[in-house]
Automatic annotation (TrEMBL):
Alphabetical UniProt keywords: Fatty acid metabolism, Lipid degradation, Lipid metabolism, NAD, Oxidoreductase
One GO process term, biological-process aspect: fatty acid beta-oxidation
The protein's annotated pathway: Lipid metabolism; fatty acid beta-oxidation
Organism: Deinococcus detaillensis
Protein name as it appears in the record: 3-hydroxyacyl-CoA dehydrogenase
Chain ranges of the 3-hydroxyacyl-CoA dehydrogenase C-terminal domain: 178-276
Amino acid sequence: MGAAIAAQLTNAGIPVVLLDIVLPDKPDRNFLAKAGIERALKASPAAFMAPENAKLITVGNLEDDLAKIKDADWIIEAIIEKLDAKHDLWEKVEKVAKKTAIISSNSSGIPMHLQVEGRSEDFKSRFVGAHFFNPPRYLHLLEVIPTDQTSPEVVRAFSEFADHTLGKGVVVANDVPGFVGNRIGVYGMVRAMKRMEENGLTPAVVDQLTGPAIGRPKSATFRTADLSGLDIIYHVANDIGKVTGDDEDFTLTNTFKQLVEEKKWLGDKTGSGFYKKTKDERGKTKILTLNLDNLEYEDQAPVKVAVLDALKGKPLAERVKGLYEVEGKEGDFMRGVMNDSFWYAAKMAGTVSGQLQDIDNALKWGFGWEQGPFETMDALGVKTVIGSLEKEGRTLPPLLQKMKDESRDKFYNGGEIVDAKGEMQPYAAPYLILSDLKKDASKVVKKTSGASLVDLGDGVLLLEFHSKMNALGEDAIRMIGTAHKTVQELGYAGLVVGNQGDNFSAGANLPLILSQAQDEEWDELDAAIKLFQQATTSLRFSPHPVVVAPFNLTLGGGTEMALHADAVTASAETYMGLVEVGVGLIPGGGGTKEMLLRFTDQTLPGQPLLPAVQRAFELIGTAKVSTSAQDARKLSFLRKSDETVMNRDNLLAEAKRKVLELAPGYVQPAMRMDIPVMGEAAIGAIKSALYGLVEGGYASKYDREVLLQLANILAGGATNNRQARVTEQQLLDLEREAFLTLAGKKGTQDRIAHMLKTGKPLRN
């Protein structure tokens, strides 16, 4: 965990000293620290946003190198969960650390005030818990846990640093066992196991019910348990139960105890848990599931839960309501599990945190829930939940009793929220949240099924996509032109292109392209490509600044929009790529042109152009996707001037700020008219390389057909003039011609159909 935290700090550009204990049987006294970095470099998903970030880490050991922390601004421990070990470490640290350093523990269970016993008042004032969730790069939550003696200024400064610099979602937790996330999250997991056995369900069925169907990760309950480690859940549940006196709430089932205590099946770390991975006779991985009756593993047949079929495709609120109200053992299980979560969250309000939104955020950011327990109660109706709890014979926690007495049906109510005591308090989200902004109907300037124009305030307009996966259909593309027109007519300073969905954009509307190609609607398809090219290029060649704010999947047309923006404000977790060759096409919205320009512009006068053409060809031809914004910059999807935001929640606000920075004195750019190209010389070089790839089995014959079309564009057409010059429009025309040619081929249509059916590329 220490190495994973160190990796995330380097992702933010922060140098780190990583110290570990000395193993007496290892000649290298820094063996464990080095091993931690190696594990982080090999981790999947990757701990480092770029492997070279590891160079920011200096390794050492706690016996020889403790003096290396003397200049550190922040010192954090992630050692064994034993109080005496922490006491010993903090005694040594206090003798070395500078008097302004913030001191933190990553402990997931040992209260912070116990750790600083015996330390000076000054040390205690700078000590604050900093509990990361694993893996630190991907789980957004950071619980900041002050003691009664922690300086409020330290809490404020550290929380701000964690938010803006580290990109974490900060929840300030009370210094109680389990803090917020584990206290409520582990309770819910323990109760789900008990409810499963009571209702005669299997782990596989429970994971179907408690995963994406109710807005939670695919790993759901028991896959998450295996990933976390059954021993970790075992110890956390037992420890919280003992320390709090809530033994009954945290009592694990006999089956679970048997897995840990007798079988030693601890999940992924031992290869066996509620699930087991194995290989079939062909060497293909298959998943076995645990039979709870005999504790033997069985082939996992496809799980079908009828009630989920009826709810498929419906909005989250409808799915949750449907599962809460359905009859039968699945309904009994889901009502029980949700009521457990609601009851315990309400019971813990004020104990783990005084803010209900912090409890909701802890579950969303630390466990990947789309909605926290109080938000879910609002969606169901608090009165409905209270009635269900009373029907079960439960005593209402004081918070819910007050909600009942005052006949309130929501915790969140516009600009107000109920606090832990049941009183209404003003509430303003710490981030720009579109769903909140759009509650004011006047902020939505225009809307279609696939896109909206939203007034962000301060003279900035937002173009927001909201189709499935934010795929770019005709209505979304046409809205780009409407956005430019609206900026000019209503006097906005500029435009942000962004949204707060799961992904920025997964690219083009493939079903429409396939349909038009199969029906031979070539004029319509040609017009659609031309419309998209006009839309993407307009993002740069407009009389006002445009900033694109990509995050997560930014593929195909999504990348092409970012490539054409005046500036990009990207989330650190941005996965960009021109992936069209995977479906037998080429980037047709200016992406091929833009990558050629980026690489040729990096070529010094007098240097050959071929390496630049080859770089663009390799990047597009292999459908390379960046692993982060940092990687996207290395690949030239992002420019050095483009900005990266560590915390995605700040993304739209930072993009808005960039528009306002660019707006004064903005000058509309002109299209390039003198782009150097190589013509047949480049095509010949690429043909030779392709021959070797096909003969060596690295590319199929149809890959060759697709890639030759790509080569023709990057060469500027089949001219024999090695010093030819072309315009941007000529390159766009070559793109459109190649796109249409490929769309008419059976090989491409087969690839698109296969991708739509399986989600995987076809190698034909």
